Amino acid sequence: MSDDTVVVWDESLLAYDMGDHPLDPVRVELTFALARELGILNRPGVRVVKPEPADDALLTRVHEPAYLAAVRNAPRDPLFAGYGLGTSDNPVFEGMHESSALIAGATVAAAEAVWRGDARRAVNVAGGLHHAMRARAAGFCVYNDPAVAIARLLDLGAERVAYVDVDVHHGDGVQQIFWNDPRVLTVSVHETPLALFPGTGFPDETGGPGAQGTAVNMPLPPGVDDSGWQRAFHAIVPSVLRAFRPQVLVSQCGADGHRLDPLADLNLTVDGQRATYLAMRALADELCDGRWVATGGGGYALVEVVPRAWTHLLAVATGDPIDPATLTPPAWRDLVASRQLGREVPLRMTDDADPSYEPWQPTGEPNAVDRAIAATRKTVFPLLGLDPHDPRD
């Protein structure tokens, strides 16, 4: 296996543009500009690969043919409605099929590179559209690129694929698509569905018949900070991954759990997000011989958060992490200013936060986070042969 890292990128990925909408492609543009200014894309062993669109054979591994036809035809019909399209969340836009297929193709290219041994890790930060269902757009997502990539891994011979979603929203589309497939473990750490879209992701969602225990959900109460989030992540994710023994790890790394994100209610920092990326890389190294496919996802603090978070992700995937005290380059700050986005430009790659945490223990007076941890462990751990009360599991 090559030790290279593939970064799938081309400016054509910015064409997934819903107009006046929270999911603004400028966040991806500014991520790559920041990564480039910091030299991450020029590191030894980093290969930037131009994506090709996923064809219908790939897309229909997870999406219904009639849905693909609707996505193609919708821009031609000003009165189009149906399949979740034409809503405020999922407006119809010109080139919708083509740009969505390109994002899916980019994540598939990342997965193929890792599975075939052309790279140890691969990243598509323009991907992570995890809410799209088999025949319905949802949550800003038209085609579910992580699910298409996972289906491609299965077709290439993978027997166990783990999907870990750290977006603030539940990874509902990926979970639903593989609900009955015991070859795919879906793990989602998210804000409680009692407070946030999409209203799913409760602990008792554990997988369909024959696949029980292969859906794992860790919902957290609003307001959770880095220490609580890390405590929950480490109380659940390493244990279930070790029990499942995946051959490859696919991650959705939405940055919308940050305290500045306008669409959610968690209180994370870029320092905590950086710590999560390091933890996922370590789990891939421990369990999957390093095979890690990382995507972006949500994130709506377009300047203040997303470019820094995903630049940290790119750094972790390609080699040494960035020192949090690193200054953002002046040329990048000038680029942001030229976009006239009206946002405060961060001067450093840190929020000056300490992402350390106290490991979960089944004793003591439980707080809201510990009650959530206990609920998830009690529900799903026995299905995986784990002891919900043993902190070593």
TrEMBL record:
Pathway: Ketone degradation; acetoin degradation. Pfam families: Hist_deacetyl. Residues 21-315 form the Histone deacetylase domain. The keyword Coiled coil does not apply. Keywords: Acetoin catabolism. CDD domains: HDAC_AcuC_like. SUPFAM superfamilies: Arginase/deacetylase. Belongs to the histone deacetylase family. This is Acetoin utilization protein AcuC. It comes from Micromonospora parva. The lineage of its organism: Bacteria, Bacillati, Actinomycetota, Actinomycetes, Micromonosporales.
